[in-house]
Amino acid sequence: MRKLKLFSVFYKSTLSLSLTFAALLAAMGGRLFITVFGIAFMTGSWILSLYYKEQTRKNEYVYYQNMGITKSALVIFSILLNVLIGSFFILYDLA
Amino acid sequence: MILPDVLEVDSLAKRYAERVILSDVYLKCQTGDIVGLFGRNGTGKSTLMKIVFGMEKADNKFVRVNDKVLLSQSQLIKEISYLSQDSFLPNNLTVLELVNLTLNSKKVDSFLDDAILTPFLSTKVNSLSGGELRYLEIKLLLNLPSKFVLLDEPFNGISPIIVQAVTELIRSHSKSKGIILTDHDYHSVLDVANRYYLLSDGYLRAISGRNDLVRLGYLNR
């Protein structure tokens, strides 16, 4: 349970940039707003937010490592969650 | 009689390009030990700690805990905690949120019964002063279940009162943990540690105390 909370705190710290990036791209998507949002969230959003984390708050990974979670586990978790959420938006728009 | 847990770092070698940073390093620490690691700037003390924690690759290394070789970082971080030189706590949480997130609920009350931390429980981590933040980091690490703790510059930038508090924390937790620390505040390291090593020219050698630091050129007199 604690590990899940830790993953969630890490993911939340990447979320604002992810959402902003996807929303900005989606705003240019016109009628395809939701699909573009989903695609951006699945792709560029996590690349940008993890790159930003690497550049500005890289040392936070040490905290999670001290809590028994490796950097690769955090990165994989974030990517998978972004892909899952992005897919949901795309499928919703197609339905 | 309970046998102590033992951390051994063996045959550790690291070079950057042609420069040898660490050569055939052997280091042993067991629960009850406070090992002070001395060395001038750039001699590889931080690199050594990062390698032992699995954050940095070595050209060669064996890290064993109780004779079991730990190969991956996921194995190492179960047994070893690490205080990096730079602050590492997620800074968007309050102190109370962070303590609740980090520690077992049974430990939280005794952890927070602390005159240094009490005024800051609802303060965000990024609003703490350097000394308060360092104290919080060190206290959290010492309260984790890992058997060994590596402290890279625990006394850096903190006031004498906090230095004293950190020294007491280290002493009290060394009963159940093995602690390796390095800092340029050699007075504090000599005071708190019970075994010493000097790292110079890539080699790590056990020393007996201040006189050896002078003899081997770490101190002038």
- Total of helices of chain B: 8
**Low-confidence segments of chain A:** none
Q: Give the structural class of chain B.
A: alpha/beta
**Tally of DSSP β-strands of chain B:** 10
How do the strands line up in the largest sheet of chain B?
A: 6-7-8-3-9-10
Radius of gyration of chain B: 17 Å
String of helices and strands of chain A:
HHHHH
Tell me about the largest β-sheet of chain B.
6 strands, mixed
Spatial separation of the terminal alpha carbons of chain B:
43 Å
- What portion of the residues of chain A fall into strands of 2 or more residues? under 5%
Question: What distance lies between the first and last C-alpha atoms of chain A, to the nearest angstrom?
Answer: 34 Å
Q: Taking all residues together, what is the mean pLDDT of chain A?
A: 92
Note the overall shape of chain B. globular
Helix fraction of chain A, binned, reads over 70%
Query: Can you give the helix content of chain B as a percent range?
Result: 25-40%
Q: Report the β-strand fraction of chain B as a percent range.
A: 25-35%
Topology order of chain B in helix (H) and strand (E) letters: EEEHEEHEHHHEHEHEEH
What would you call the quaternary organization? heterodimer
* Tally of helical runs of chain A: 5
Biggest protein-protein contact in the assembly: A-B, 19 and 23 residues
Features:
heterodimer; A: 95 residues; mainly alpha; B: 221 residues; alpha/beta; 6-stranded mixed sheet; 10 strands; globular
Write the layout of secondary structure elements.
The complex is a heterodimer of chains A (95) and B (221).
Chain A: H1 2-27, H2 33-42, H3 44-56, H4 60-66, H5 71-94
Helix pairs in contact in A: 1-2, 1-3, 2-5, 3-5
Chain B: E1 6-16, E2 19-30, E3 34-38, H1 45-53, E4 60-65, E5 68-69, H2 73-79, E6 80-83, H3 95-102, H4 105-112, H5 130-142, E7 148-152, H6 160-173, E8 178-182, H7 186-192, E9 195-200, E10 203-207, H8 210-215
Parallel strand pairs in B: 3-8, 3-9, 6-7, 7-8
Antiparallel strand pairs in B: 1-2, 1-4, 4-5, 9-10
Helix pairs in contact in B: 5-6
